[in-house]
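Incident log, structure service

09:12 report received: a user says their structure output differs between two submissions of the same chain.
09:20 pulled the input from the user's history:
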Amino acid sequence: MEQVIEKEITLPNVAVKLATVQWATAEEFSPQFSGYYNICQRLSDNHSALRIGNVPAREAFARVRSVGFLPPAWPVKLYPALERPFRVLNCIFDKDFFEETTQIEQEHWDDHPGALVSIKDRRLETMMQEIYGELVEPGFAHDLLIEAASTMLLVEMARYGRRLAKVSEKGGAGQGLAPWQMRRIHERLEAAQDTGYPGVAELAALCGISQSHLMRNFKVSTGWQIHKYVAEERLKAAKRMLAEDKASAREISARLGFSSPAYFATAFRRMTGKTPTEYQRQSRTLEVH
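09:34 re-ran on a clean worker, output below:
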């Protein structure tokens, strides 16, 4: 396994490393040091999900921005990602600091290996992206921001660990969606700009489960209510289209399936603080300059 460190920063309780990794055969992988916890995020998009061989979940890092978690000295067997480089962000925490902050010891995580290699949690993904942005383009007091964001990561991991405990107490009810079900949902949303955004009934049918089952287990897997998740994905698409396309706000509203341009404008302003027209004008001004 070859690893190239692109950027890194070491703080008192966490080391953040941006790396490109490549390997051609199945290899055993474990955290670099036995006394550390590692939260990692996939950044590359030119390969499929990683296959793993010795934990219940068969896939890791199913999509760009997927987050995984490795407790100390916890190895997994990874198969090559189509022999292409794998770009990853690692946040490596001191063991004592991690456990003191989360108030969860390693034995708890060892009981849930299948729920750790590919965590579906939008907050974790967003926090890791904040850290990545500061690492690549550091701003004022970037070390303080990274330290604060990394502490927020631990708070979210503590909540995730407690959700796993509740699932176990209920005898396995509400265990979240399987990787293939999450993949079908993401593939459907990626195609939505051409085919329209799906409702809960359509997504449940894609996953082969009832709507109530989908809503309950999607929340367990991601921490999001599924209708809010779809709504945010649609508004993110609107931002991209307003910034990149020459279409008007009215045309984009129709393409994304909003009930009316007025409703689109209201929803967009609620998320961004700007109307679609204001956002589009600002984006084009930035391009000119």
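09:41 both user submissions now match this output. Likely a transient worker issue. Closing.
09:42 reviewer note: The chain has a mean pLDDT of 83. The chain has two domains: 2-169, 179-288.
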